[in-house]
Structure to design on (360 residues):
């Protein structure tokens, strides 16, 4: 079985090296770089694959983000991991921060968060058709977010930050960091159409900063990571309704710098991991499969700075972390009880912001 890891090299100043490719050797706990791809990509921030793992999609903020972002499609060589360019389209917004391919592989959804500065449009959710051979069509549905909240630096405008398609592919949920809410859209997979459902949308406490939402593998629960509050909210989910069950801190008490950045659920559904950029640590949660309740077990520090994205392999045996500020990719082995064992720095590259396992 061939295993590859792709990493988006992101530079807030706009100078990036593109998308790095690594061959992953799980038996040796080793990453071997095989090249940098994407001359079309200027400053990638997010990555996504289709359900077959044949295609990789890259959200590009571009060096001059004011002109709008783009999304590029690449064909993955299953033998070598090398990327062949398919095409690129405008992201229908500014700063594409999250991509999600729908379970049927017909559409790709993008969240364009926009800058924290006020007075800029392009804070959108957009739907793109996926055509033959992985090619992207231009956006066929675009929704511009609006609103503010209380934080004077990060909430003077909307910032849609994630796309979560529910287990039945009937609704799309979009955490908006700038409005302290989770926007709900009814979704038509066949048409690739979104219809805003304000009556289903969820508001969270002011100054929370919703960043990422993930559904539990059983489809009964959803987990929201708040960037500003660095808290985790657990919801019960049924028929397009999110019902809050619990709010718990993702950091120990007494820590003032809170800047949560990523959330991932173990494939078995028993554990959950979040990251914090200010504390450079990964928090480990246990999940009760019956109630959905999450219990914070503890944290493990990384060997870097500005920890951002994390990724799990398909079987949930390894976790990779991108230390964006230290230019390193760090590895952890996941034990049977969900605990993490530090494997050290496995690769060096500029600004690893998003990581993606691809296994054949």
């Amino acid at each position: 079985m061939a295993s590859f890891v792709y990493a988006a090299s992101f530079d807030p100043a706009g100078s990036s090296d593109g998308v790095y490719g690594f061959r992953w050797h799980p038996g040796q706990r080793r990453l071997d770089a095989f090249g940098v791809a994407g001359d079309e990509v200027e400053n990638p921030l997010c990555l996504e694959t289709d359900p077959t793992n044949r295609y990789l999609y890259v959200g590009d903020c571009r060096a001059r983000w004011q002109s709008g972002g783009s999304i590029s499609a690449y064909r993955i060589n299953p033998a070598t991991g090398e990327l062949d360019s398919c095409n690129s389209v405008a992201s229908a917004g500014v700063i594409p921060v999250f991509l999600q391919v729908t379970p049927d592989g017909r559409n790709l959804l993008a969240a364009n968060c926009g800058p924290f500065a006020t007075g800029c449009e392009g804070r959108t959710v957009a739907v793109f058709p996926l055509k033959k051979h992985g090619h992207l069509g231009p956006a066929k549905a675009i929704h511009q977010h609006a609103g503010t909240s209380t934080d004077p630096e990060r909430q003077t405008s909307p910032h849609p930050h994630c796309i979560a398609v529910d287990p039945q592919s009937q609704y799309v949920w979009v955490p908006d960091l700038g409005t302290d809410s989770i926007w709900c859209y009814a979704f038509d997979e066949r048409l690739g159409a979104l219809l805003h459902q304000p009556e289903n949308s969820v508001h969270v406490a002011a100054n929370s900063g919703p960043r990422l939402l993930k559904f539990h593998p059983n489809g009964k629960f959803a987990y929201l990571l708040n960037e500003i509050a660095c808290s985790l909210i657990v919801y019960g989910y049924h028929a397009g309704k999110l019902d809050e069950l619990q709010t718990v801190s993702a950091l120990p008490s007494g820590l003032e710098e809170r800047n949560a950045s990523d959330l991932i659920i173990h494939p078995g559904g028993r554990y959950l991991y979040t990251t914090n950029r200010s504390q450079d640590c990964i928090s480990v949660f246990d999940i009760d499969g019956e109630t959905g309740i999450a219990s914070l077990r503890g944290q493990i520090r990384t060997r870097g700075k500005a920890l951002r994205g994390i990724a799990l392999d398909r079987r949930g045996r390894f976790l990779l972390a991108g230390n964006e500020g230290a230019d390193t990719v760090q590895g952890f082995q996941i034990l049977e009880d969900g605990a993490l064992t530090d494997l050290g720095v496995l690769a060096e590259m500029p600004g690893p912001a998003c990581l993606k396992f691809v296994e054949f």
Summary: The chain has no helices and 29 strands.
